[in-house]
Design a protein that fits this description.
- Keywords: Signal.
- The protein is α/β, with parallel strands linked by helices.
- It contains 3 helices and 4 strands, in the order αβαββαβ.
- The chain is globular and about 30 Å long.
Length: about 110
Amino acid sequence: MKIKQIITASAIGVFACNLAFASPTSSSNPLYVQAGGHIGVHSSADQELAKAVISKLQADSKLAGVLEVDSRDGNISISGRVDEVSMIYRVVEIIKDNNAVKSVDVRQLDT
């Protein structure tokens, strides 16, 4: 009987820890966005564009997931994972709202 209680308590503890770390941000939407870590020199314009895109994505309360943003000559590549397919469309909509964006590649974005 004691072993069963210990195993049950351990399972609950592990589950609770996973819930605590599941959301990397403390905001109401569990969205984590970071700049891409691709090798090579990015122009300052690309760095600023990536920062602007990241800021806009983080400000959207409808998005949830983990994203990586990369900018090269005004072309944005997004990789990572979102909670729903509709969020992929929302990501593209938000990014295309920026006039400096030439194209958006979401082929590496999964649900």
